[in-house]
């Protein structure tokens, strides 16, 4: 499994987490999504490495900004 | 028209506002709902005075706490 972590800014509550989760789960190859508004983290797992740009775009669709964690 | 104002605690974003709105709109007699997470306000309008207890319960259903404004 390949895990990729992102920092997401702007999430304030569980509703925000749900919005991000719903969009990111639609990205091809994504098998699981963990998201925390408290930590501002998004962890995406798939059998293959995920398309980071697609994940970032999905987060933007939900109304937030993401960057790949260093 | 009768307008009743409440203070709502716990809302952090537009998703929270939407959750409150959806529940409060279901209260019988409610014709319009204005809600602001920034101000923590909920303004409910109806032809007759609204049932304040029903509004407060609806807010609780959404996951927040409301009190009638003084």
UniProtKB/TrEMBL annotation, chains A, B:
InterPro entries: HMA_dom (IPR006121), HMA_dom_sf (IPR036163). It holds the Pfam family HMA. Residues 2-67 form the HMA domain. This is Copper chaperone.
